[in-house]
Structure formats: C-alpha cells, structure tokens
Design goal:
20 strands; globular; four-stranded antiparallel sheet; about 45% strand; 4 helices; mainly beta
C-alpha cells in the first residue's frame, strides 16, 4: 500500500501515528503506560477503509479520544512526601491542651475575667490538597478555641505559613493565626523567621513584636515573653498589646478600650 502521508501526535506518555493513503487510514498507539488494558510490549493498531471511515466516523472519534485520554499522566498523589514538625519554641509559647485556663484582673476596675481553651485538635496541613503542589511534605498544625466572657470566642490556628504561590511553600515558616468571634477576618499575630525565632513584626496591620527576657504582671515576675503591640487599633484583633510567656501563655494584655488585664492565676497543659 502506497502511503501518501504520515502524521505523528506526541503525548506525555504515548505516541499516536497516522498512516494515510487514498484507500485507507491506519493509526497506531504506542504506549508502555496503558494500565489494565494491554501488556506494555504490545501496541494497538487499526486499519480502516474509506467506506468504513464514512460510516463510523463519530464512533472512531470517540475511540480516538478515549485512547488519547489514556495517554495522560494518571499518577495520583496519595500521601505526603515527608513530614515537617512544628518548632518546639513555637509550641512553648502558643500550644496548650484542652482545659487550660487563665484568670485575669482589670488593673483599673478590679473586674475579673478568664480565658479557657477547648476543642484543641491536631489537623496536619497537606499543601497538595490546597494548591496542588506535588511531592511536598505535610506540616504539623493545630486548631483550638479560646473562650472569654468579655472578649468572646477566638479561633486560633497554628500552622505552616504558605500561600497560593507554590514557591512560598517552605518548612521554615510557621504562623499563629487568630480569628475573632462572628468574623471571617484573620490576624496573623506571629510568624517564625527560620525555624526558631519570631518575626519582629506582624505580617499585616503593622503590629510590632519584642522579645523580653523577663517582665512583671500583677506584681509577679515572668521569664521569656513575646510582646505584641499595635500603634493604632487593629480592626481584626481584640488587643492593642498582648504578652505571651513561654510555657504559660497570655500573661497580660491591653484591650481596645485601653483596659489592662494582668494574670491572677492559671493552669495549663502542654
């Protein structure tokens, strides 16, 4: 048979070759990646005459597209490629277990308020499910709620820092994220630099962070503490200033009404 033309279509995992003559059309599909259909060493071929082409044209198109679809990469991601643990330093300041609580006194009025932690859960982050990045690890992540009579419910997220730009996915960054009651606004209060230090400023709304070796609240001395303060009211946060002491949690804060609350007692589990 004299062939008038030969055409080739290359797909990532197979090749389709057309042999066209005045009397017939023959096409072959070469692929080692047709699972559950044929052995890898066998190729599929069809020879069709002109009358058959006219009669079965739509059917042939369907067959062709079915085989072309089988040429696509069918590899499915089923698990993480490694696991990134949250830095211990980050956990020491921010991660506490259910039933932890803190009691505070208003330094002006003497009023008492408390914050207690409930519904803590571990829910690791897999960026592949969020942004589709393959061959990436899972990140250790936590969620919990803080309940307060005066401040309402605060939803807290401790997770790896990432965005929808895959290049920003990195194991060296973790974020403390807080969402207020009845609000979808999220405030990233603290972000790590490297694996064991805290950024000197918050990612949004211009909050600044100081690390104190020690400080006093309600006449008591405390050790390593992170102090976050906003120059002006942050509409996404309920504090103007807040102190986190390592292995204790929130030891002092100033709310948006300029009331200063200092810790009276606490009981925490980490």
């Amino acid at each position: 048979m004299l062939l008038s033309s030969i055409n080739r279509l290359n797909f990532p995992f197979c090749t389709v070759v057309f042999y066209c003559s005045t009397q017939s059309l023959q096409f072959l599909i070469f692929s080692p990646n047709l699972p559950n259909l044929i052995p890898a060493s066998i190729n599929i071929g069809f020879v069709l005459n002109v009358s058959m082409l006219k009669k079965y044209s739509y059917f042939l198109l369907l067959i062709f597209f079915l085989f072309a679809e089988s040429c696509k990469d069918t590899k499915k991601i089923s698990s993480c490629m490694g696991y990134v643990e949250m830095p211990k330093m980050f956990k020491d300041y921010f991660l506490f277990q259910d039933s932890s609580y803190w009691v505070y006194k208003d330094s002006i009025s003497g009023d008492i308020d408390s914050i207690y932690l409930q519904e803590m859960r571990k829910e690791d982050l897999w960026p592949y499910k969020v942004v589709g990045t393959k061959d990436c690890p899972c990140y250790e992540s936590y969620y919990y709620n803080l309940y307060s009579y005066n401040q309402g419910t605060q939803r807290v997220k401790l997770q790896s820092y990432f965005s929808k730009t895959p290049i920003d996915l990195t194991k060296e960054n973790f974020v403390y994220n807080i969402t207020l009651a009845n609000s979808n606004k999220m405030e990233d209060r603290f972000v790590t630099i490297g694996y064991d230090s805290i950024s000197p400023e918050t990612p949004v709304f211009g909050g600044y962070i100081d690390k104190l070796d020690s400080f006093k609240a309600n006449g008591n001395s405390f050790g390593e503490t992170l102090r976050l303060h906003y120059p002006s009211i942050n509409p996404n946060d309920w504090v103007r200033e807040i102190y986190y002491t390592r292995n204790i949690g929130i030891t002092k804060y100033r709310d948006n009404y300029n009331h200063v609350w200092e810790i009276v007692k606490y009981k925490v589990k980490q």
